[in-house]
Write a structure and sequence with these properties.
five-stranded parallel sheet, disordered N terminus, Rossmann fold, single chain, alpha/beta, about 40% helix, 6 helices
């Protein structure tokens, strides 16, 4: 293939016609903050996933609060030794099988966004806070609850993203690392 038909390299693609380099967007997940979005509306899921991914967050999507709680139990938010649901009992054979199985990768979830349109959103938040009261999770997770009072999806998504970015800044700031935050959007 001659040089006229070759694809540009990354250095050439990053430079403009004037020779200045363009600033690239951060890769998804590059800031190390994981966001769990719980929403029954698929359009809201897609919009939030796209916007939060573009901002550099790792986004996990669930449709129900029960799925969201399952995600939390598989995440770094939850104690590594905890298995199954809260209060579940396992037999000796099940424990042996779980010990023999290779460890599953842990999900990084730092912020939880719950839509008020989920019928059990309040129960989900109560369950998470109940786990914290019992000492189950490793740390506190801020929860954003979308009240759904805005009629335009774009405005609602923009507010959610602004709140998530603010919480992410607080999580990354060493002075406010341990501060508890609750926000109602």
């Amino acid at each position: 293939m001659d040089s006229a038909h070759q694809l540009p390299t990354t250095e050439a693609a990053a430079s403009t016609t004037t020779g200045q380099t363009q600033r690239r967007r951060p890769r998804p997940g590059s800031n190390g903050i994981g966001v769990l979005v719980i929403d029954v509306n698929q359009i809201n899921q897609i919009v939030l996933h796209k916007i939060l991914s573009r901002c550099g967050f790792t986004v996990y999507i669930t449709s129900t609060c029960n799925e969201g709680l399952d995600y939390l139990q598989q995440s770094t938010f939850y104690f590594p030794h905890s298995k199954g649901t809260v209060g579940s009992r396992t037999s000796a054979a099940e424990e042996k099988n779980q010990q023999d199985a290779p460890p599953q990768p842990r999900l990084q979830i730092d912020i939880i966004v719950i839509s008020a349109h989920c019928t059990d959103s309040l129960a989900c938040v109560r369950t998470i806070r109940g786990w914290e009261g019992e000492g189950e999770p490793v740390r506190h997770a801020p929860v954003l609850v979308d009240s759904g009072v805005l009629s335009f999806r774009a405005a609602s998504a923009a507010r959610i993203v602004a709140c998530v970015e603010e919480l992410a800044e607080r999580l990354l700031d060493p002075e406010t690392k341990g501060a508890h935050s609750e926000t109602v959007v």
